[in-house]
Amino acid sequence: MKGPLFYSKILLFGEYGIIKDSKGLSIPYNFYNGALKKDENPSVEAIKSNESLKQFANHIQSIDVTIVRFDNERLQEDVNSGMYFDSSIPQGYGVGSSGALVAALYDKYAFDKITVLENLTREKLLKLKSIFSAMESFFHGKSSGLDPLNSYLSIPILINSKDNIEATGIPAQQSNGKGAVFLLDSGIIGETAPMVTLFMESMKQEGFRKMLKNQFIKHTDACVDDFLKGDVKSLFSNTKKLSKIVLNNFKPMIPHQFHELWKKGLDTNDYYLKLCGSGGGGYILGFTEDIQKAKQSLSDYNLEVVYNF
Length: 309
What we know:
Layout (H helix, E strand, L loop, with lengths): L5 E8 L10 E14 L6 H18 L10 H9 L3 E4 L9 H13 L12 H19 L5 H8 L3 E5 L2 E4 L12 E6 L6 H11 L3 H24 L2 H18 L9 H10 L3 E4 L7 E6 L2 H7 L5 E6 L1
Antiparallel strand pairs: 1-2, 2-3, 2-4, 4-5, 6-8, 6-9, 7-8
Helix pairs in contact: 1-2, 3-4, 3-5, 4-5, 7-8, 8-9
């Protein structure tokens, strides 16, 4: 048995902001994927994955049937006979490892499922998002449902606000373009829940709320618009401002050893860094107008290019 593949995702813009209704842009990242499987002779990893799938299956059975109905009998049967999630998506890296698993289980076990092939109205997208939110809350305590949505549909998603999302097209990549979006591996596993808690604590301070509304969300929205329009010059100008705001106001979400590297990018303009997901570790997202320059500047690190301008 081998299920269809579900891919990782990258939230290019909107981390934390989308909690407070900023725009966001999420794109599938096909470099990593996962699928449901069964093996005659399971590995140690497969057995471990199956154990956590058993717990997740219990959570799925507790979801309100008015939101979504699952074939719980078949799910239970498969889990008991050793089904696991075979995934190359790194966990705790902000690229949607739990999202892909949620998408795979919905695809295989949900009754009356909304499929990628039908006309995806805003209502259908929001319904999917709320189903995925209820499923993924098992992993993070609170989930927007966007990661699984991206993984399930495998198309870019534009978030205009909490209740307004749409499938979108993004400008075609320039395969020989010098500009790039890249992932930088921090080498540290990040945990989503404590970072979100930290953010919620900060939101109690008036100064932080003001900064979020007047600076962070303003530049996040501008970055999304620039990216979709293909206005690269304005995009880099806004990304630099965003990178600076994050360094000044989201320091706890940036692993300590990267504070200097973050600042170096802003000082030299070789690259600009931003959070990928909730931060605290995992990947850091980078933007550069000259990928060769960025690679020289960050020669101690492994960069994965995800998009070329």
